[in-house]
Amino acid sequence: MKRELIVLGSGSSVGTPAIGCETDACLSDNPKNNRTRTSVFVPAPYGNFVVDTPPELRIQLTRERIPIVHAALFTHSHADHIFGLDDLRICGFKLEAPVELLCEEPVEEQIRQSFNYAFSADTPPAHRFAIPKFAFRRVALEPFELLGVSVQPIRLLHGRLPVLGFRFGDVAFCTDVSEIPEQSWPLLEGLDTLVLGALRDRPHPTHFTIDQALEVIERVSPRRAFLTHISAEMEHEETNRRLPNGVELAYDGLRIAF
């Protein structure tokens, strides 16, 4: 059965429009230039999960009318990818069970530090809804099952920081990447759809440029590709006009069958 992955957010760490920004994208009335921070939603046979929990997560989930999230999978622990985690607090109480958080050890350590109230037993809660219900599950590079979906982690580099991309069947999500290690390329073979981070035209030390992402897409040869984690420098329609066939910018609310 075909399901639809939803791009919840397609923006960079500051979003579009950014504070004080006067680029064409920031001043645009085109809703596809309104980019919240990067995340995707994956419906599974036995529940729903998100990849990353950006600061606008509540807005993203309510916009797409997603009533519940059972788990969150993390690429890395930068603020624009974890600081919406408390928005899942309501899901744990609706489920009467912990929301599972799947990540590598350094990400778990950062989440525990950033949301210490959720994991500390030192301070009693003021009321029973004050403390989120979360449970960590450590992941590595081996494939695993999540709510009935087979997930293949993909090692990527975000500058010098090791991060994860993820493959779900014939769709791969690889945001915040500036280099793909040689051992990871085979995991991107045979894709129908690649969602790949591409920040802007100008070089950046921790993100692919548009041209670098196009080189990756040419090597991987998916049927189609969408660029995400897009900066406020990139106006949606103008950028799409110069992209090759089969490649376009992602946008908030984009649905991808997988």
TrEMBL record:
Biological source species: Stratiformator vulcanicus
Domain of life: Bacteria
Entry GO MF terms: phosphoribosyl 1,2-cyclic phosphate phosphodiesterase activity
Domain Metallo-beta-lactamase: 36-229
Catalytic activity, EC: 3.1.4.55
Keywords, comma-separated and alphabetical: Hydrolase
Protein name: Phosphoribosyl 1,2-cyclic phosphodiesterase
First-level EC class: hydrolase
Record's keyword annotation contains Lyase: no
A Pfam family the protein falls into: Lactamase_B_2
UniProt xrefs under InterPro entries: Metallo-B-lactamas, RibonucZ/Hydroxyglut_hydro
